[in-house]
Amino acid sequence: MEDDKIKEEILRYLYERWRTPKSIDGSKAKVSEIQKSMKSCGINREETNRNLSYLVDNGWVKEDVKQSQFRKGKFSYPTESRTFRISTSGIELFHGKSKFQKLEGITGINIQNVSGVVNIGDGNYIRNEFVSIFRSLDELDGKIRITDQLNDADKLSYRAEVKTIQSQLSKPNPDKGIISKSWSVLEKLATISSIADLIIKVKPVIMKLIGF
Description:
Structural class: alpha+beta
Number of domains: 2
Number of helices: 8
CATH superfamily of the largest domain: Winged helix-like DNA-binding domain superfamily/Winged helix DNA-binding domain
Number of strands: 5
């Protein structure tokens, strides 16, 4: 299985724990629990460990370390336990953005005075008819961030094209030429298996938007 798919499986497992916790700390999982779940998907321990490490390093998963003492006879020894939970960025990959996010970037505007505009979080105000495509583009942005089939420079470039399209969707009259140009770049991501499904999903909407 490709590493990108393994990352998604790990995130999906932690997302489900977050979505249906059995206790106050139910969203947290030990590495052994993650390894056991991944083993049922045909993913071995080494594959799980390296991809979990990647997700932690890049902010998709939070690692919690709890320090304690273990007593044996007259002596005590320091010990620690490590658990993992999905981060806000990881949740958004499956759940979409929340209206409860901290809003930034738009001040001095009473958005209630603008007809047909909705706030979908993170300071993003777009027209009602573009909410679905905007969220699909958010998902595409997330998959670009998580893939290891692109170098950092390419990720930055592709994510900039996603943001360009999203910024046009925030306008009363999106510039079809700008959207078309950015989309022609993003279509190249169809060669990456973990991203291809989203390109296929988004393409018909983009084509309709730009008049094809």
